[in-house]
Design goal:
By secondary structure, the protein is α/β, with parallel strands linked by helices. The protein is 37% helix and 14% strand.
């Protein structure tokens, strides 16, 4: 599949050959963008608002698969269905200030296994949430498939609290802290989470869109030098340079498998009002799409989470607008080009 700069390269060189070095070509071969796997996670126990568990169903019913298929009729799209789980019986063994831990541990363990399966089957993996706690499982599954992963965390919030610092105890505000190996010593033993090992370096993660950060999270960002581009940086540099710098920070050698974990609340509430923790002053939809486009254009994007779409919040028009934004983001992650999709026209162009 070709789009954007890939197509321009093809047209310059003629004969359908891209003007890429051998090393660069090898990097594009890493991810098979012709095959896509979709995993639904109707999970809402990581936070308190009802309705976010309806996100996967609503996104599908809004036309996700048809919208992706419009990119090219040659795309092989497989929907793996939804993660179904039974909550663990922790037999009274609980971690302080981690609400619904038995649900989070059970669901994310199964999700990790499913994401690994999708990636092992050579597919770009789209995970539909659900709240952002599911990223514990999706990123863990990616790491079990490929240990060298770079994560782009697009969110209004840092999700970097531990159980001892969280004001709410809601686990959707903790996934980055659970995943990062540098923060492993900040946690007690967590029953039910033995399957998950924090192995990704926080240096291989970057934030885009931050504008609501708790004091402790700010301290950790500063202490560990975490790469963070808040809305102030987006305004100062523009989204093009922010994405360029973000990729340079987490993947300077252009060799890592990339994972975008995208909270819909990174968008301004005027763009995506049906979400549980909306914050004014966020990304425009145009900026949000650009992030996905650039991640795809690296040729190394292997997995995407789209979370916190809540059809239970707002009016029918709010829900429609939010689902429309979600579809735009996901099709951009699958290679849709705003200047037109030409994947099925390459043979005709050659003639």
């Amino acid at each position: 599949m070709l789009c954007g700069k890939h197509f321009a390269s093809l047209m310059r060189t003629g004969g359908g050959r891209r003007s890429l070095s051998t090393d660069r070509l090898e990097k594009f071969k890493k991810i098979n963008y012709g095959k896509i796997g979709i995993v639904g996670v109707p999970f809402e126990k990581g936070q308190r608002k009802k309705g976010v568990g309806l996100g996967p169903k609503a996104i599908r019913e809004a036309g996700l698969i048809d919208s992706i298929q419009e990119i090219s009729n040659k795309l092989d799209i497989r929907d793996y269905g939804d993660i179904q789980y039974e909550a663990l019986n922790l037999q009274g063994r609980l971690a302080t200030n981690m609400k619904k831990l038995e649900h989070v541990a059970s669901c994310t363990k199964l999700l990790s296994q499913r994401v690994t399966q999708v990636l092992n089957e050579d597919r770009l993996c789209l995970t539909l949430g659900g709240d952002h706690a599911i990223a514990i499982g999706s990123i863990d599954g990616h790491l079990k498939h490929c240990s060298d992963v770079g994560v782009i965390w697009v969110d209004a919030h840092a999700d970097l609290n531990t159980n001892s610092t969280s004001p709410s105890g809601n686990i959707h505000g903790m996934p980055v802290a659970l995943l990062a190996k540098e923060l492993a010593d900040y946690w007690p033993y967590i029953p039910g989470m033995d399957w998950q090992e924090p192995i990704i370096s926080i240096k291989n993660m970057v934030y885009i869109g931050l504008r609501s950060v708790d004091p402790y999270e700010r301290v950790i960002i500063e202490k560990f030098g975490i790469h963070a581009f808040g809305m102030r940086e987006v305004e100062r540099y523009g989204i093009k340079d922010v994405m360029r710098m973000a990729l340079e920070r987490i993947d300077p050698e252009q060799k890592r498998s990339l994972h975008v974990s995208y909270d819909i609340d990174s968008l301004d509430v005027l763009e995506a009002p049906s979400t549980g923790t909306g914050v004014r002053g966020g990304l425009t939809l145009r900026e949000g799409i650009y992030i996905m486009e650039e991640a795809y254009n690296t040729g190394r994007l292997a997995a995407v989470d789209l979370v916190e779409v809540n059809p239970g919040v707002g009016t029918a028009d709010d829900v429609r607008k939010t689902l429309d934004a979600a579809i735009h983001l996901l099709v951009a992650a699958c290679g849709h080009s705003r200047i037109g999709d030409i994947a099925d026209m390459v043979d005709l162009i050659k003639k």
